[in-house]
Amino acid sequence: MRYSQGRRVTRMQKIEIKNLSKSYGSKKVIEDLTLTLEGNRIYGLIGENGTGKSTLLRLISGLARPTKGTIEVNGKKNAEERRSQIAYLSDQEAFDGFSTIAYQVDFHQKMVTGFQVDRVYDMLNTIRLSVDQKIKNLSKGHRNLFNLILTLANPAPILVLDEPLSGIDTNKKEDLVQLLSTFTLDEERLIIFATHEYDEIEFLIDGLIIIKDSRLVYFTEDLEKMRLEHGKTIQQIFKEVNQ
User: Fold this and answer.
1) Which end of the chain has the least Cβ crowding within 10 Å, N or C?
2) Mean of the per-residue pLDDT values for the chain?
3) What per-residue confidence (pLDDT) applies to 3?
4) Which domains does the chain have, with CATH numbers?
């Protein structure tokens, strides 16, 4: 699932979250979260399963309504307006398995203003995927990688990615990490990247967000500085805040 009719980026990006809470009945999924993300950076979002990572991404993307609090994306508070700023990659697959890669590329080119179709074909060549292949014949890893490529080709200034590494083999993960790094540098994007595979993002992300028991328990926008000053890996930081 992807959203945005966004235009090419010409400025620094900003997400402001204030006193955000989300409940489903009596179950609190996000509780009183305040956070500001800004700049052309990649932020890693980590936490155990069920801690609220996916819910937070859906709230930011305007796909779920908060119980309390506000979210502002590049100055836009309304959910529909926020969606115009964001390309969202769900952790759920939404392909018609009988369609081909070429059909899906053509469909997205028609649906998304400014869709970067040339980049899609460049990336498909890099990972050696034929446009004539049917989606149903791809491995889970290749389907997920293709889904990510379509999201990266969306010109929205902010990318919200929910578990994009899921099911992708080690070699392809290296290609993916390079793609993400190149995109945020070349196009001045802000990327939020939810994952449980900490080792894979150690030297990809600029900032780190950790959620525990529905609450924000750790945040730095300069992970490299923290690493140099304290000599800790993401995994070590995660273990400390979860003790």
Assistant:
1) C
2) 87
3) 40
4) 14-241 (3.40.50.300)
